[in-house]
């Protein structure tokens, strides 16, 4: 999500009187096993900075949990409410990240490129020794977690991007990104009726296709969890609390689609998914930061979160979440979501 008041989070976005446009990540270096870009995978060297409100940052938290990278890659959590100086570490004692020693994520951007004029976005990975931003490439970070950080994966970690299925995964993810992940923002930040209705149609056309696809299979591609499920989940879990009303994606709620509602509950109840979701941060960010859409700043009291833990019966379909692997253990104590942010 950008530090500009757009709530997009995943790289820079532009909106206003122009058509909504999501920019490419400016800092696209990769952290790889061989270190081709100068950033080799190394336990303890990097810090992942996220907002729990951001769907794109939420992806990295899920992938990190499923793969067991918690001890290798520390995480810093920003306040869900930004100010004009970017994402801030006001949740930490003294208002500073305890590892990086900075008050604002923009300081890591400035350390990498002095006077960088673009938006400050999460997720971001920072090199701890130098304090410099390494990457804010929200599309690539989790793919590299799955394929380049394998030496640091936990025993029993799932293969989230299996080579034999990558073409299909990529195809599914492309449609999900264009029409669902990004589509809700195109609808929410539209400045004209035709622009809004076009995005609205794209969102629900794709959701209908996904509902049909998932009607007889547990997961989007293959018979185990993959990157495609992670990317769809982070939008679906925010849909009813935020996008359905706030972004005017109101043909129906996810809870009113029996297939998608069961699917997202199945994922939510899978270790590594629901335990990364903070509904309090999500709602406060969108409704308080987007003053152009919600000028009163009032945060809705609903919806009721208790239904997230109800039976979904998706286990009756073929597929096992971790295949021959195992689920992750409980999250580290310091990373547990406060009760106010959970059902």
Give a written overview of the molecule.
It comes from Streptomyces synnematoformans. This is Glutathione S-transferase C-terminal domain-containing protein. Pfam families: GST_C_2. InterPro entries: Glutathione-S-Trfase_C-like, Glutathione-S-Trfase_C_sf, Glutathione_S-Trfase, GST_Omega-like_C, GST_Omega/GSH, Thioredoxin-like_sf. By secondary structure, this protein is an alpha+beta fold. It folds into 2 domains: about 15-150, Glutaredoxin (3-Layer(aba) Sandwich), CATH 3.40.30; about 165-340, Glutathione S-transferase Yfyf (Class Pi), Chain A, domain 2 (Up-down Bundle). About 35% of the residues lie in helices and about 5% in strands. The strands form 2 sheets. A 4-stranded mixed beta sheet has the order 4-3-5-6, sandwiched between helices. Strands 1-2 form a two-stranded antiparallel sheet. The relative contact order is 0.14. Residues about 5-10 and about 10-20 have low confidence and may be disordered.
**What fraction of residues sit in β-strands?**
5-15%
Global structural class:
alpha+beta
The count of strands amounts to 6
Distance between the termini: 24 Å
Helix % is 25-40%
What's the Cα radius of gyration? 19 Å
Shape: globular
Mean pLDDT score: 93
Give helix and strand order, one letter per element, not per position. EEEHEHEEHHHHHHH
Q: Name the CATH architecture of the largest domain.
A: Up-down Bundle
Spatial strand order of the main sheet: 4-3-5-6
Largest sheet: 4 strands, mixed
Overall structural domain count: 2
Number of helices: 9
The top level CATH class name of the largest domain: Mainly Alpha
CATH topology of the largest domain: Glutathione S-transferase Yfyf (Class Pi), Chain A, domain 2
Q: Give the low-confidence spans.
A: 3-8, 10-18
